[in-house]
Amino acid sequence: MRVLVHIEDGDAWRHALAERLPEADVITSEAPAARRREADYLAAWKPSAELLREPIRLKGIVNLGAGVDALLNNPGLPAGVPIIKLRDAGMAELIGDYVRYGVLHFQRDFDRYRRQQARRDWHEHAVVDKDDWPVGVLGLGAIGAKVAAMVAADGFAVHGWSRSPKQLPDIICHHGDEGLRELLGQVRSLVLLLPDTRATRHVINAETLARLPAGASLINPGRGTLVDEAALLDALGPGEQEGRLRGAILDAFPEEPLPEKNPLWGHPRVWVTPHMAGPTPMKEALDQVAQALRAFEAGEALDTVDPDAGY
Ligand code: GLV
Q1: CATH 2.60.40.10 given to domain 2-89+280-298
Q2: Which protein residue has the closest C-alpha to ligand 1 atom 5?
Q3: Tens-digit pLDDT profile for residues 20-53
């Protein structure tokens, strides 16, 4: 089999995949077009439409990331080719650390102390107990479930939400529209780990933000399209004075890089990070890629992406 790899630092990925799959001819998108055309599999992160159209006998695509939104929205995506995505592959722990930092940031008032420091203002805020600080995690897939467990292991009361019912140890699970309303009404930090699909677009909007208790905070290491930005800015209110929403830590935006003119950059109660919460770890990812490609070749049933559901 020939595998075409496309990702930043593709040569390192090509070498490491060839070690795991000695039976395969592994090439990168730098290889000559004639060789790319005959690839059986594509393992890629955000390939161009042109590259996606090249292979003429593609049997499968492995998405080298957790979210398949960019791939499914790519106009070059060939119809009917099965897609595998990475599941956790070490990303959940990285994102879990990002979220734990974010929750502690608000629970231990680091946001307030930062603003006080600018005024040389020495005064202490009473600590709210972790079990009085419910955290909500929207999305309980491979990443969301692990992140929820990590935050619960830190001692926070964790509520999780998924479209269909789930049961997870130590997590208060909610589902469906009613469950979402229940969760929103009681969480002090809200974490977004839903996939970007037609059904999740702007799930955080004026109505859902209004359901959060006053002074809640938002942490989004998921997808930018989950949030209606105008409603977010409105809930935050301007300036340093805490609005209905106390603050937001955001790693994902509908347009990336976040445009220079976007008001979120300069907002004093917003932390912007450049989509760094969960980079794809090469080793774990390639273990999954090698396993998926062998299963494809063996004709085994694989847990493929459902393009209609969007994940
Ligand atoms: C990154 O955003 C990913 O989906 O892996």
Answers
A1: no
A2: 65
A3: 999 999 999 999 999 999 999 999 999 999 999 9
